[in-house]
Specification:
Order of helices and strands: EHEEHEEHEEHHEEHEE
Largest sheet: 4 strands, mixed
Helix content: 10-25%
Number of domains: 1
Number of helices: 6
CATH class: Alpha Beta
Length: about 190
């Protein structure tokens, strides 16, 4: 059976500790990490809420990076992982401008672009990606979307846009209303 791999992020668990970001940075020889922490504030029913989650390449079903690359350096494996062959990259940055999620990263010292490959070499050894392995609260996981119950997850969350365009392979675990999001400030308390 063919797999469809992607990330699941548990918004209720993420501590914002940046362990995933640092694990990615420390285990890839690149100027910037391919995974990083996103933080958002949003008004909800009179309260200002703070949301954080681990963010990186979403290994989209319809990747804009593949369409935009003039060198054809991007390709997609049957399991859904979007890969980039840096030996074909000219560093033009078309993929950076095309990706609505900011996944491709430019390396100024090498003059080329690269991105998260879901630590494919680790997955082939039955190991988790570095970002998943290091998370102290298991807020991020790699799953086969063909084996999960989609109704338990959401494709959207605050700050996560353009999902219709690329159909990203990331889901957000639905939270019960008791644990939803840390309330920073109650508007009515002003």
């Amino acid at each position: 059976m063919e797999q469809r791999l992607g990330f699941v992020v548990d918004l209720a668990k993420c501590l914002g500790c940046r362990s995933c970001e640092w694990a990615c940075y420390n285990n890839h020889s690149w100027e910037t990490p391919f995974r990083y922490l996103r933080e958002f504030y949003q008004q909800d029913k009179g309260k200002l809420i703070y949301l954080k989650y681990s963010y990186g390449c979403n290994h989209c079903e319809e990747p804009e990076c593949i369409k935009a690359c003039p060198e054809k350096s991007y390709y997609k494996k049957q399991n859904g992982i979007v890969l980039h062959d840096i030996t074909k990259c000219s560093g033009c940055g078309d993929c950076i401008r095309a990706c609505p999620f900011g996944a491709p990263q430019y390396n100024s010292s090498l003059g080329i672009v690269d991105k998260c490959d879901l630590c494919v070499s680790r997955l082939e050894q039955d190991l988790d990606p570095y970002c998943v392995e290091i998370c102290p609260v298991n807020a991020i996981k790699v799953v086969d979307f063909k084996k999960i119950r989609e109704e338990n997850f959401s494709k959207e969350c605050v700050g996560f846009t353009s999902i219709e365009l690329t159909r990203p392979a990331i889901r957000f675990k639905k939270m019960d209303s008791q644990r939803q999001i840390l309330i920073i400030k109650d508007k009515e308390a002003r």
